[in-house]
Sequence to fold (501 residues):
Amino acid sequence: MSFLAGAPATWRATVVAVVSVATFRRSLGTRTALLVGLAFLMVSAALLPSSPLTIENARHAVHYAHSAIHTTPLNGSELSRPRRDTCMIAGKEWEECGEGDVLCAKYGENALRASRTYTGPEVRLRAVMRKALKGEPIKLGVLGGSVSIGHGIPHGQEFHIYHQQIWKWFQGAFPQTEVSFSNGAVAGQGSDFHKLCFHAHMDEDVDLILIDAAINDFRKDQKAALDMEWLMRGLLDLPKKPAVVHVQTLAVMFEMISLGGDLHTPIAEYYGAPVISLRPVLLPILLNDPSKLMDYYFTPGDIVDTRHIGIGGHDMLADLVISYFQSVYCSLSHEPKRGYLTPPETDMPPQLVFSRFNATNPPPTYAPMCNSTQSTLRLLSPTSTSGFALETFNGKSYWTGYKPGDRIEFDVEVRAKGTVTLDHVQSKTYGLGIIRCWLDGDEASGAYATGWWDDPRSVGQSKDIASNVAPGWHPMTCQIQTPTHDPDGGTKFMIAAVISA
Fold:
């Protein structure tokens, strides 16, 4: 500080004190740094009385100090990362990207940040964690497709499935409480199915729900977003007002890297649900070295199934979600700061995002009724069959008919005036045909559903059979038709669920 050579002694002391505050603040914190600077200044004033310490002198000293601080380059140690929230998780001290953060050491801070596509206000998620800290039991739920079933994980290694690792983390982080689990995943189904049948496959008393639908939902149009919106409204309105977190996996076998999950993100944002995505972390690895596909995807024999992640992919997805949950857990010691323009908190947006703005016209309550062939809670059972049988295909059960004229009948309960829907398989390779269904014996008003389509996915799709159906019980008849759209002449039809909503 040669520019202070001609300044009075106490001015020089004041400058040193102020610069000390600025320097020590980086390593010791503001309070400690101020005490150090004040002590230095008092000692200097006592030892150097030749120039009294007045307000005017101090003002000049601070001016000199400002020049010194802003003309002195910072070295690497002075730019060290500020300390963040520290907490105890499973008996170990944890600070995000601190010395004890093994996941940050594994992936790096930028990758973990990139995986958090959207975090939102986290009000419900924080409430679930606080509930667990009090020792109150909590239940985790999962809705998804074959990835969440564990397809791609060898028998005996199911502990690698991403949600099992997340469940284990909750048990370790909250040892004082019971953490139970309900898996509502159904192979080959996305939000088109789950919006209607989530309550037939997952317990309704869940506190936290993980949604895996990024692959089985299509990117072709906005239908995936509309289906997800109705699913979100149904889940958020469950009895315990659960937190919902979107867990987006990655498939690279389709015509686009972009999948239905890219349509889900704005819906999740509208409803304040966090989104954790595998793609920002895994895709750069695969683009840099395609041979790494075998490390992260299911490899039956010499084939790489690039639709279903394997052990490596499940481990990575679990790590990314757990890292995010650790960050939220460690922030529970304080409430987020509010500002004078903080928007009001709403438990449920008063209108659909897929609707014209009208804050005084809320959408109707969403309460679908679903009976499913793969449900243990609401099993789909026909009242009569002719040619149809309950068959298992690739580990999934369907009411299946094979030839024109095969018929099946169900009794459908409608609780409020609404729509009756058939959920069935669509596939390019299963040899599927066409079926016609109708209610109350009115065959003329029936609707057709097509099993074959020109798409590489083999998944469930829904078809509305009748709308404005009066409350009560209604017989529904379905019969396989001719001709068929299948180029090979297939007429088989596979029924997964019957729904009223």
In short: The two ends are 77 Å apart (CA to CA). Residues 17-36, 38-43, 46-51, 58-79 have pLDDT under 50 and may be disordered.
